Amino acid sequence: MRVLGIETSCDETGIAIYDGEKGLLSHVLYSQIAIHADYGGVVPELASRDHIRKTLPLIKQALQEAGVSADSIDGVAYTAGPGLSGALLVGASIGRSLAMAWGKPALAVHHMEGHLLAPMLEANPPQFPFIALLVSGGHTQLVRVDGIGQYQLLGESVDDAAGEAFDKTAKLMGLEYPGGPLLAKLATQGDAKKYKFPRPMTDRPGLDFSFSGLKTAASNVIAAEGNSPEVQADIAASFQQAVVDTLVFKCQRALNETGLKRLIVAGGVSANTSLREQLQQLLSKMKGEVFYPRKEFCTDNGAMIAFAGYQRLNAGQQQDLSIGVTPRWPM
Ligand code: KG4
Ligand code: ZN
């Protein structure tokens, strides 16, 4: 079975073709960062309009790069939520309509299920069951995964997501949108022990997170010490270490509580080098294994949607003819 995947939930248009026997045949990605940069964040209306411009040409490009014709596509998977409703509707309308025109099944995919399964696109994919740490701009979740569709939420952020905390703190420091990766880069030049940031909710039981206090801590430092490049680097390093310590602490607790030894990490923040290194150290110490997507599949992409859609279409699931999206969709 060969599936076309379409991702348009936020500010990336991602298209991919996944083949059950041959694996990923092609994936193309267009980022709207330049369009939103002047506004300091994603402007939903501009995002929708740009997805309209880009989705069909990128589908043609993905087919061309895969060297396959539209006739050979057996199903179409599109992200139906969570995300920006207008942006989601572009992918859903195009995906559902193409599937109908081609006489093939369509499937609405949950964006976070896409992220969660992304490490399975790599060589040496994780076996079920495992713990998934999902860390993106919109979500911070720990999930027990026993199989495709068998997900138990163990804990999540009660306020800001980890990526959101990176972005908001970066904005306070005057860094450009999207600030997370820029802050991570600055952190390599700073002293992580310079400022004492809290490790929120590590002093109480449970697997929930809270990251909104970290940006307040950062703004207090800026108010007291200014925003010089040296202060910025030290804030970045101290902030990043606080987020990483907190995520590592909760992952260890989730693994201990469930007795599992396999961890997958996915979502935009899983591209963070410091987080990857420190989780690697944790799992080595625990004699377990940690799995990541390749860096380009940590952030939003079409490959993860094609893959998740393939798994579900192959299991016989499919969508009716209606075109709907679910901007707030629990997994
Ligand atoms: O998964 P994603 O592309 O979109 C959502 O579904 O939210 O994640 C984007 C988030 C942003 O908050 C971005 O700042 C963050 O991931 N991010 C990073 C890094 N790369 C992306 N945060 C920290 N370090 C990075 N290297
Ligand atoms: Zn995402």
Automatic annotation (TrEMBL):
One of its GO terms (biological process) is tRNA threonylcarbamoyladenosine modification. Binds 1 Fe(2+) ion per subunit. Its cofactor is Fe(2+). Fe cation binds at residues 111, 115, 300. Substrate binds at residues 134-138, 167, 180, 272. One of its GO terms (cellular component) is cytoplasm. Residues 24-307 form the Gcp-like domain. Its EC number is 2.3.1.234. It catalyses: L-threonylcarbamoyladenylate + adenosine(37) in tRNA = N(6)-L-threonylcarbamoyladenosine(37) in tRNA + AMP + H(+). Pfam families: TsaD. Keywords: Acyltransferase, Cytoplasm, Iron, Metal-binding, Transferase, tRNA processing. Signal peptide: none annotated. Gene3D superfamilies: 3.30.420.40. PROSITE patterns: GLYCOPROTEASE. It is an enzyme of class 2 (transferase). One of its GO terms (molecular function) is iron ion binding. InterPro entries: ATPase_NBD, Gcp-like_dom, KAE1/TsaD, Peptidase_M22_CS, TsaD. It is found in: Cytoplasm. It comes from the Bacteria. Belongs to the KAE1 / TsaD family. Required for the formation of a threonylcarbamoyl group on adenosine at position 37 (t(6)A37) in tRNAs that read codons beginning with adenine. Is involved in the transfer of the threonylcarbamoyl moiety of threonylcarbamoyl-AMP (TC-AMP) to the N6 group of A37, together with TsaE and TsaB. TsaD likely plays a direct catalytic role in this reaction. This is tRNA N6-adenosine threonylcarbamoyltransferase. It comes from Rheinheimera riviphila. The lineage of its organism: Bacteria, Pseudomonadati, Pseudomonadota, Gammaproteobacteria, Chromatiales.
